[in-house]
Amino acid sequence: MPAPSPGPREVLASSPEPGSRAAAAGSSCRGLLWHLQDKRLRLGLFDIDPGHKLHQMTCMMQAGLWAATQVSMDHPPTGPPTEEDFSQVLTQVHEGFELGTLAGPAFARLRRSLGLADEDYQAALGPGGPYLQFLSTSKSKASFFLSHDQRFFLKTQRRREVQVLLAHLPRYVQHLQRHPHSLLARLLGVHSLRVAQGKKKYFIIMQSVFFPAGRISERYDIKGCEVSRWVDPAPEGNPIVQVLKDLNFEGKTINLGPQRSWFLRQMELDTAFLRELNMTDYSLLVAFQQLHEDEKGLGSSLIFRTVRSVRGIQSPEESGAQNRRLLPDAPNALHIVDGPEQRYFLGLVDLVTVYGLRKRLEHLWKTLRYPGRTFSTVSPACYARRLCQWAEANTE
Known about the structure:
Elements: E1 9-12, H1 18-37, E2 46-47, H2 55-74, H3 83-87, E3 89-94, E4 97-102, H4 104-113, H5 118-125, E5 132-133, E6 144-146, E7 152-157, H6 159-178, E8 187-195, E9 201-207, E10 216-222, H7 260-276, E11 283-290, E12 336-338, E13 342-349, H8 357-369, H9 380-393
Parallel strand pairs: 1-3
Antiparallel strand pairs: 2-5, 3-4, 4-8, 6-7, 7-9, 8-9, 10-11, 11-13, 12-13
């Protein structure tokens, strides 16, 4: 597997040009208008404004990502992918901090294959509006952010997790090429941030599974087990954006209609891929949204093997190896599946937990502590099988 190159290439990052400042100002105005129009949809999300303890860090992230995206716009990758695309490390020096871009050309290619324009990516992640923070039920010490339009999700990662992600990046890209309708979260960038001479912090960017967030009524993080899988629901009327867990899902059903066979098959394909990478403890995100009357029965529930796929992707595999469907005409179509009455947001996230010695010891400890109960720390084969069984048992 390609590894990050030992010597990062350093450049002095340029500031936005005057015209870009004007565009950013226009984007800021549009962002303000969007904020006012959709304020009710952001209840429970908090602007990381100047009074927030993470404001300085997120401002650095925004400025750094604006400059990093500009590099891929000015020097788009050409020709077939190379090993260097996956190993390149570009360090841009800013006033007071450095931002590293890892495997930049590989992620630039991936974004283009998804039909994501660099200009839109830059506008959403750059200084056009504050990042948003939400209260997470995760036990990790990671920080979680959303871009101001809620389209992109940012999460801090440990160095070891980043190394694992980059080591498997070529196979991840290959899997998405072979299965363009995969449920795997779409990773869009990996970066490091160093303030002054301090320690590097790493973060990833991915397409948010829960986008667009308007009208979503319930959100769940599913692992197919029971230990520590309950969240006390917020009191009725509380505006917090809450992600519930497996035990909260009891009594619910995902009614996919004709889409069910596609979904179960894709779960098998994606979890088999993660099993081959020795991954465990990932999550299936699920959200519910009631369809309007004029959205029902528009044909998006039909299954196809050879029709419309992701714009720009050409699979090298024969059509018989595919598991494709007709994508709904909606933003974030890859994570949206329409049933007869509900729209569902579905995606597999947290894909970097290796079942190594530490997890094996944790498995042994939990086996002794929770005899006869199911928990998340199990072998990749057991984890994949159990999550697929959950999907089959809770869909119709």
